[in-house]
Amino acid sequence: MALRDISLTIEEGRKTAILGPNGAGKSTLFLHFNGVFKPKSGQMLYQGSPLVYRNKELSQLRKEVAVILQNPDDQIFSATVEEDVAFGPLNLGLPRDEVEARVDEALSLVDLTHNRERPSQQLSFGQRKRLALAGALAMRPKVLIMDEPTAGLDPHMVQEVLELTEELHMKGITLIMSTHEMEVAYSWADDFKVVHQGRLLYSGPAEELFANRTLLELLGFQAPSVYRMNEEMHRSGLMEREPVPRDMTEMRLKMCRMNRRQVGDLHIREVDQEHVPAVRDVHEMLSNGKAVGYYGSKAKHLLAMTLPTDVRLPGLTACLDKMIDGREAVLFAEKDLIPAIMHHINNLAHRYHVKITVVQE
Amino acid sequence: MFELDELAYRSSALKWSPTGKFLFVLTLLISSLLAKSMLVPMMVLVVGVLLLGYSMRFRFPKIIGIIILETLGMIVLGGVVIAAVTPGLTIWSVDLGLFVLSFSDTGVSTASLVTLRALAGISVMLFFATSTPIPHFADMLVRFRVPKEFTELMVLVYRYSFMLLDEAGRMHLAAQCRLGFLGRLNSVKTYAKMMTGMFIRSIETAERSNQGMQCRNYQGSIGMLREPKGMSYAWVAICVMSFLLLLQLNDVCVRSGILMG
Description:
The structure holds two protein chains of two kinds.
Chain A: E1 15-19, H1 26-33, E2 45-46, E3 49-50, H2 55-64, E4 65-68, H3 81-91, H4 96-109, H5 125-137, E5 143-147, H6 155-170, E6 174-179, H7 182-188, E7 191-196, E8 199-204, H8 206-211, H9 213-219, H10 225-235, H11 248-258, E9 266-270, H12 279-287, E10 291-295, H13 297-306, H14 316-324, E11 329-333, H15 338-352, E12 358-360
Parallel strand pairs in A: 1-6, 1-7, 4-5, 5-6, 9-11, 9-12, 10-11
Antiparallel strand pairs in A: 2-3, 7-8
Helix pairs in contact in A: 3-4, 3-5, 4-5, 11-14
Chain B: H1 2-10, H2 18-34, H3 39-55, H4 62-85, E1 90-95, E2 100-104, H5 105-129, H6 134-143, H7 148-177, H8 184-215, H9 233-256
Antiparallel strand pairs in B: 1-2
Helix pairs in contact in B: 2-5, 2-9, 3-5, 4-5, 6-7, 7-8
């Protein structure tokens, strides 16, 4: 799809969702972002400077701006998992040790460490999606562009991908994602942009887009169910309009305030190579009715190595849901991510005027 | 293809040097071909079967059975023809009405030798094929100074052939769901459409893959993170010793007239 009269800015450090029906030009736009396509007129700017379409400059650009294509098979070239993750770093001409370190890190982030020697064609679709993500992460990009990363994945996997992108965002990576799933986009993105027939039709906050019914009808989109539920309850006089919740967990937090219900406490426990929880302790927590979860790929990896395979711990959102039920929750996370988690929880507590006690242990 | 690939990745001999394996297999093949006595190909056959068994942890899957049976059929048929057409002293004959089928002593000996050589060759080659994935084979070719352009194409063809097979399978299923194979003429038409579709989709895939490679900073050659083990002196020693041993065995057999072909 050819792009026409398109002008947009992606802000550094933000999560931007690009929406649009099939064939709207989203993928074409993404390939302009990393210089694979060159505009016939106009210009692309990265960090304020126009793109230079010479090999050396393009190589530098693609090192910083990684694109994950919609179909993972379009960007998996190597026969085994680790060889494919190493493809990008080897192209950068990095030393072997550095490549090894990046491959380890990327595989651990997407939870494919145990599959590193497997042939790529033997992976499931979900695993191939994660492999494509690992291939991009191994480049250690500043900007990560994902073309429909959740398409074709089961709900559990979608949650995992979103949690991973959340972690990457906390680590300072600018994220851009295209999707058809309005619910996913609404709960995830800071900024919304809508592309239709090669043109940019909307750029701004999600709520303004949902309020524009003509535009929604033109695009064939529907506002997310949580947004519509909030509107409907407000119209019925059941709750105030603001703050508008972004997902069901936030809606439940809002209802907690209305019903003056107490939210359970959150205990955040640091986890690293030296501080891995004992299986006995986790079982004890679970049998005491506590919700136990993890945040971040490192914590997930360490817990997976320790705990039996039948104990599958949920992420932060699931823990929050259990806290809203009034249960106490214990969240394992690596040290670097704890301030970001506390910031996130405090933001939620402040936004919905609920008291959430967070204890760092 | 899928099964053989899986076997290669699960093989106990996966970590062995592909160059070493290849040279050893080649040594056994040449020794077997040079031999005048049937004992040498017999020995190679035993070694080949043992290696094959070790490679697959002595669990022979169905695919190996099918390959062996198919090749065995061809080899036996070839052997019968050789035994029938080689002149010599007739040791057995049968009247088939239109003609008399006779087997000569020379014919039977030659056919036995050829059959054993073929069986030995297949066993060792099967060991190599089921323990060496294509990327390892490509790495071996690089060590033999085969141009990188050729070996990289080989690896890409290998990778994409799986996708092509997947795509063909999906198209076949889709056609089947819509009664595409109802009737012979209809089936031919459907297969023709599938072939056209495959061609178009291959071009599209190539285009998208090119974009994918550019996204990942492709600089003209595909690097390898973990190269398979290279050739060691131990492999050279094993190859030379095996060759000399089999040659010696052949000499002894020729001199004593044991199991001569």
